[in-house]
Amino acid sequence: MPKMKTKSSAKKRFKLTGSGKIKRKHAFKSHILTKKSKKRKLKLTHDTLVHKADEPNIKLQLNLK
Prior knowledge:
Blueprint: H1 8-13, E1 15-16, E2 22-24, H2 38-45, E3 48-49, H3 55-61
Antiparallel strand pairs: 1-2, 2-3
């Protein structure tokens, strides 16, 4: 049986933390930034964790158990 491939889109977007949680970047930080406040853009810069409900799907895409 062949090995399962990792989804390329998922491996580019998500990283695993040391404790096994999944880290992601915020959306809406790439363009049309003039109308967004400094505070809002600063908050979008920092990484955050994936919601618990979405973790199983992402782990499947990354071939984690």
